[in-house]
Specification:
Largest sheet: none
Strand content: under 5%
Distance between the termini: 34 Å
Number of strands: 0
Low-confidence stretches: none
Shape: globular
Order of helices and strands: HHH
Helix content: over 70%
Number of helices: 3
Mean pLDDT: 89
């Protein structure tokens, strides 16, 4: 249960970071997203994949 909560919280942080950057007209690169959510937070493959999926859905 705790792990699922952490997973959902991280995805929400990524969502918010990507949205914030896009709203400001800044490309949501992994480095820029990490500046918002914290360094090293998105190094797990599942979060990198989620970031790529989110980014591509918003930049099309």
């Amino acid at each position: 249960m705790e792990k699922q909560f952490k997973n959902n919280a991280m995805k929400k942080s990524i969502d918010n970071a990507v949205y914030t950057l896009m709203k400001r007209g800044i490309y949501p690169s992994s480095g820029k997203v990490e500046e918002i959510i914290g360094k090293g937070k998105s190094h797990e493959k599942k979060y990198q994949d989620y970031w790529k999926e989110k980014k591509s859905s918003l930049t099309k």
